[in-house]
Amino acid sequence: MGAKTKFLRQFFKDRQMVGAVAPSTKFLAEKMLKNVDFENSKVIIELGPGNGVFTEIMLERMAPDAKLYVFELNDEFYNQVSSRINDPRAQIIHDSAENIGNYVKEAGTADAVVSSLPLMVFPEQLRANVVNAAHTALHNKGKYIQFQYSLQSKRYLEGIFDDVNIQFTIRNLPPAFVYTCCK
Fold first, then answer.
1. CATH 3.40.50.150 holds for 3-182
2. pTM (2 decimals)?
């Protein structure tokens, strides 16, 4: 079974945790990752890697001494990513993004959090727990980068971060908004 078919199956199986009908494109990955300073970032966190499109690109660009913490709660996606990614800099974690602090405290604060989680389909408390955990994990100049398929998250993220910049890419299915948020 192909990656797109598996992804679509997961979408219909668990719509509250999987927000897309197809894997993200490399065009969306470029928009998402262009605001990450890979040369100077020592700790990066990825939330909801799906099939690992962003994960692989981040590992290609990261410094040799950097660390990537990847959180995936969906069993199918966790198994896909953990079997494909074989890099000592990456720690694939089968746990909720709410628990970031339990894993990254030894590494210090993060330079960037890259999230593909479908925030606006999450129950309100889960959404708050995830975004607050990401905010807490970031150092003062860290960036939270999130994509969504609507502008619904704009006001929510502006209430948490000092600066929220939004870009749009039509070269994804569906087209997506990329939020880059700074403390």
1. yes
2. 0.87
